[in-house]
Amino acid sequence: MDPYAECLAHLSDGHRAAYLTRLEPGSDLDHRGTSLTEDILNRLLDAVRDPDTRRPLLGTARFDAARFLGDADFDGTYFRHEAAFEQAVFSGIARFAATTFSGNVQFERARFRGARFRDARFDGDAWFGEARFAEEARFDRARFSGYARFGLVGFLNNAAFDGAQFLGNIGLQGASFGGHAWFDGARFENDARLGPLVCAGSLDLSAVVFAAPVIIEAAAGKVWCTRTRWEAKAVLRLRYATVDLSESVLAHPLGITTQAAPFNDRTGTDWTEDTLEERDLGGRDARVHIASLRGVDAAHLVLHNVDLTHCLFSGAVNLDQLRLEGDCPLALPPAGVLRRGRIPMRWTVRRTLAEEQHWRAAQGYGAWAAAPTDVEALEPSALAPLYRQLRKSFEDGRNEPDAADFYYGEMEMRRHDRKRPRGERALLSLYWAVSGYGLRASRALVWLLAAMAATVLVMMLWGLPKDVPTTGTGGRSTGQSVSQASGTTDPVDPDGPLAQRMTSERFEKSVRVVINSVVFRSAPQTLTTSGTYTEMLSRLVEPALLGLAALAIRGRVKR
Question: What is the full DSSP assignment across 71-132?
Answer without folding.
Answer: -EE-TT-EE-S-EE-TT-EEEEEEE-TT-EE-S-EE-TT-EEEEEE-TT-EE-S-EE-TT-E
